[in-house]
Write a structure and sequence with these properties.
- The strands form four sheets. Strands 2, 3, 5, 7, 8, 10, 13, 14 and 17 form a nine-stranded antiparallel sheet that branches. The protein has a three-stranded mixed sheet with strand order 1-15-16, with no helix packed on it. A three-stranded antiparallel sheet has the order 4-11-9, with no helix packed on it.
- The protein is built from two helices and 17 strands.
- Helices cover 9% and strands 38% of the residues.
- The chain has a single domain (38-193), classed as Glucose Permease (Domain IIA).
- The protein is mainly β.
- Bound molecules: zinc ion.
- Residues 54, 61-62, 67, 69, 158 line the site of zinc ion (ZN).
Amino acid sequence: MRFLFFSYLCFLYLAPHAQSRYTTRQLLNGRYKNDSSYIYSLPFVTGKKVFLIQGYETIFSHKGERSLDFKIRKGTTICAARAGVVTAVRQDSDKGGLKPENLADGNYIIILHADSSTAWYWHLKKNGVLVQEGDSVQEGQPIGLSGNTGFSAFPHLHFEVQGRDAAGHYTRLATRFYTQHGVIYLSPYRFYRTRR
Ligand SMILES: [Zn+2]
């Protein structure tokens, strides 16, 4: 009984971000059976179709990085991919480009989730933040408007989730999403439709 209880505690600690034990390729190929990680919704209004131009660890600017770039028109409504509390926002920049100094020019929203992971929404347009620090947001709630600020060559949304991996290190995590193809980890260069 004591062993069972201990196993349960381990499960609670490890299960949320156990996807970090798998390579991106293994996740995309469905090699993680019994995946119990949180299922996010795509950060757009329900039914919206979007093109994923960079996926996890793609070479252009996500080398070694588990983050996603959705190519969308400037001004597209961004919605919370998961409920949480807004911990930081910036919306005063109107600069963007691929120069090193542009790294400091991005507008963003950071949302803290119940399991202490955080979602980062980047490159929002100037004055394109619809929430404030301290706000509680529901999944699917509009939170911002996309743009091209920061280290960015064209209008897009950079989305990433940070949290502790199975070894306890703080890192970027691959996450599952509801899509028209079911619940999956996203592959680059494909269209996905927002489902909730
Ligand atoms: Zn990116």
